[in-house]
Structure formats: structure tokens, C-alpha cells
Amino acid sequence: MIFYELFLRSFYDSNGDGIGDFKGLEEKLDYFKELGVDTIWLLPIMKSPAFHGYTISSFYETNPVYGELKDLKSALRKGHEMGLKFVLDLPINHVAVNSEWFQKALEDKEPYKNWFTWANEKTNLSEKRHWGDDYIWHEIGDKYFYGLFGPGSPDLNFENKELWEEMKKVFKFWLDAGFDGFRLDAAKHIFDYDAKKMVFKYQHDKNINFWKEMLDYVYSVKEDAIIVSEVWDDQKIVEKYEGVFDIGFNFPLSGDMKDSIKKEDTKKFVKSLKNNFSKYIDKENDVETKSGNFLTNHDMQRLISEYEENEDKTKFAYSILFTLPGKPFIFYGEELGLRGELVSVNYTEDSQEPFQWYEIGFGPGQTEWKGYKFNPPYSKVSYEHQKNDSNSMFNHIKSLISFRKENNWIDDASISIISQNESIVKIKINKDSHSIIAIYNFKSSKSLLNVNKNKIIKCYGI
Ligand code: ACG
């Protein structure tokens, strides 16, 4: 199973308004087949005032700029016929300020007013969240509400059991629409405010209890639902959620892997394999929550920008990614080496520029919802330019995907570290009668994945 994280707005525009849409998705499903990925993680597509869709104004409606529910269903149906699966990003921790739920709550209407958390005279209104420098209480009219992700997105108060039932309806609605599973946004945040002590505080046990009930319900509707969770934290916290979800993003590994390649030093990578990937080391069949392996996502800067446009490092990083057990994820456009730098995790437009179909920057289906800041026309990041160039990023990633599909046993393999020094790491990847030796050279001068017949892979670095 190879995941492709897709931002619909930037993908393919069927009606000429410059914004990617469901019909465009349907028209371009063959692109995923060509690349070789098989499971599409769609970033939020519900009604939302925000470009990214993470603040939802109605959980039961599609964003009209993307099209109608019937268009979405049609795209999913056709995708299924082609052997693709679809996972929906579902941010349920909060809603949009302009949502009917919050607007009714502001008018003190039942039951909505209890669906949010309001400050009282004892609340510390200057409390900030533990990362970054943002306040968590926001003024509106004569009230203050709790909104961890900013003034545009009041948190839902899941102390209220009615909301649990409401969320089950939301899950069912989107499963019925044809989704095969969910990417659970902000999974550690459902309970992160301690109402008794009146402070921000993660309550992981309560989160786990909540997710277990939700997932029991999801599996009762769709037995083989695919569940991916986002718990962005260090290993100690991630481990608490082991076994709750099918797949969990491995944020620590991602960071360490990128850093090692950047610094041309294996130390962090090896440390991370031992600490954050330990469930795969020298063990078999011991993994409950599979490691979701990725290098970048929509909250991060693009990989090639992280490496100051060094294409060899970028290719090398993907070579490693596709040899590791677990489930590989690729963020749309990485296969073309799209660029994008982020000034802040609160402003992510710059890593989500339009997917470039044509070298001249426009043509049928090309999205143009925002101007190019990092990927101007003629910068050789288009599909058109890369598809026939055997050395392109596109063809590198395509061959890695094809390698991984031929060796899909790697998903559930275990690894042993055979040797390591500051330049080279040698590992054995093992499952039943299969085995491969991978040699990663962090200081070499070429970048390629070399698989030879006797099952030794050499990934050269920079
Ligand atoms: C998800 C989505 C994101 C979305 C939201 C809200 C959540 O992917 O696009 O924002 O719906 C935190 C949350 C994540 C969240 C990111 C953006 N991502 O936990 O759920 O913020 C620290 C914190 C993390 C934090 C991370 C962000 O612990 O909680 O993620 O920083 O930088 C080491 C440490 C690790 C530390 C990292 C980084 O690895 O171990 O703990 O993580 O270093 O320092 C969207 C928009 C937002 C908008 C919102 C409403 O993008 O702009 O405000 O929607």
C-alpha cells in the first residue's frame, strides 16, 4: 500500500475556474496508476472558509469549489474500479467560526452552546499553547472561547457525549460516500484542556478511549476501514497510542532522516531507527500500529527546498523511504521536486503550490488558484518536462514505487542493522523467505537506487 497525499485545490481543474475539483480528480485518476501509488489521502474537502479546509463549517457538505457530493462519489467509484483506495482527512477537533454550530452556540442555543469551551472569570486568558507563541483563548462579542488552532477554529468540547454520537454520523456519512478510511487529524488534541484545573493539558487516556469508541463504530460500518492517525509528538507520547490505529505517522523518524541526509552524517538516522523504529528491529510480527513513513507533508516545507535545491539529496531521501518497513507516504508534487519554503506552520500555502502539468505553466486542467512563488513556469518541475526524462525526479520516484510494489512484503518486514559508520549504514530487511540488504551511503557522489539480482540495494547519497 503506497499512499499519496493529495491537495485537491492544486491538482486538476475541470471547469476552468483555476481550482482543482472532483471532476478533475476523476479525469486524472490514470495519473496515480501511472505513478504507481494506490491509496489517495485527500486533504479535507468539506465545506470550509479556509483554503486548506481544516476549519470546517459543515461536516456533511462538500466544499462547493470542489463540486457536489455526486461528483465526489463518481470519482471515488471510478477510482475503485481502477483499484485505487481513498482516505479522507477528517479534522474533528474543531470547527470554523462561521459554522452553524458555533454561530448557534454564540446565541446560547441548545445543545450547541455546550459543544464548545467558554472562559469564565477564573480563566487565564493569556495562556499560550505549548509550542509556538499562540494564545488559546479568543474573544468574540462578550465571550472568550477555547481554540487551540487559532481564533478561526473553536475547539469542540468532547466532554459532551452528544458530540460523540454526532461524530459517528459524520464517519458514517463519508464511508457511505465511498471513502475507504480516514486520516485522523490532530488525534492527540481531542482532550487537551483540563476543565477542572483550567489549564491546557493533554489527556491521552481520554483521547484513546474516545478513538477506540469511534473506531469500533467505524469498523462496524466498514470492517476493513483504513485508519491513519496524526499524533505529532516524540516517541514517548506516540507509544501511548500503539495499537489504537492501523497506521501512525512517524514524525520523529521523518525529522531525523532528513537531518542526517542534510548533514551527511548517519548518526541521527541510526539513533532514530533504534529509538523510533525499534518495533521493526530484530522482531517479527510485533507491530500493531504500522509506521507511516514520510518525509514531508502539507505542514512542512518541500523536501527539495529543505535541501537547498539539491536534487541528489532529495532522491536519496526517497530511496531510503521506500526501503523501510511500514507504509510509505508521498506528498503530492514531491515526485516532481516541487519547491516551497514555509515561514510558519500557521501559513502553509507556500508548500501547496499548483501541481504543474505543463512546462509553460498553463494549459487544460492546470490549477491557478494562487500565483507561483517557488515554481515559476519553465523551471523543469512539470510533469510534461519530467515524464520522458529517465533521470527526472518523477522517474526516480516512479521506479522506487515499482520496486516497492514488487517487494510489498517489506511493509511487514523486520530489519537488522548490520553495520554503521558515519557515512554508511547497512541493514538487512527480512520477512519469511524474503531478504534484502540495503546499503545507504550518506557521503557518496551519486544518487540512485540500485537493485541487483542478488537482492542487494545500494542507495547512494550526495
Ligand atoms: C494538523 C494538520 C494541520 C492543521 C491542523 C489543525 C492539524 O496537519 O494542517 O492546521 O486542523 C500541531 C498539532 C498537529 C497539527 C500541527 C499543525 N497538524 O499537534 O495536529 O500542529 C510540536 C507539537 C505538535 C505540533 C508541531 C507543529 O508537539 O503538537 O503539531 O509542533 O509544529 C519535535 C517534537 C514535537 C514537536 C516538533 C516540532 O519533533 O517531538 O512534539 O511538535 O519537534 O517542533 C491547519 C492549518 C493551520 C490552522 C489550522 C486550523 O495549517 O494554519 O491554524 O488548520
From TrEMBL:
Q: Spell out the protein name for this chain.
A: Alpha-amylase
Which Pfam families does this UniProt record tie to the protein?
Answer: Alpha-amylase (PF00128)
State the EC number(s). Answer: 3.2.1.1
Indicate the segments annotated as coiled coil, or none if absent: none
Domain Glycosyl hydrolase family 13 catalytic stretches: 5-404
UniProt keyword DNA repair, yes or no: no
Choose any GO biological process term that the UniProt entry carries and state it: oligosaccharide catabolic process
Q: Which UniProt keywords apply?
A: Carbohydrate metabolism, Glycosidase, Hydrolase
Give the reaction(s) catalysed: Endohydrolysis of (1->4)-alpha-D-glucosidic linkages in polysaccharides containing three or more (1->4)-alpha-linked D-glucose units
Q: Does the keyword Kinase apply?
A: no
- Bilayer-spanning residue ranges: none
Supply one GO molecular-function term.
Answer: cation binding
In the record, the note on similarity to other proteins reads: Belongs to the glycosyl hydrolase 13 family.
Which Gene3D superfamilies would you find in this protein's record? Answer: Glycosidases, Oligo-1,6-glucosidase, Domain 2
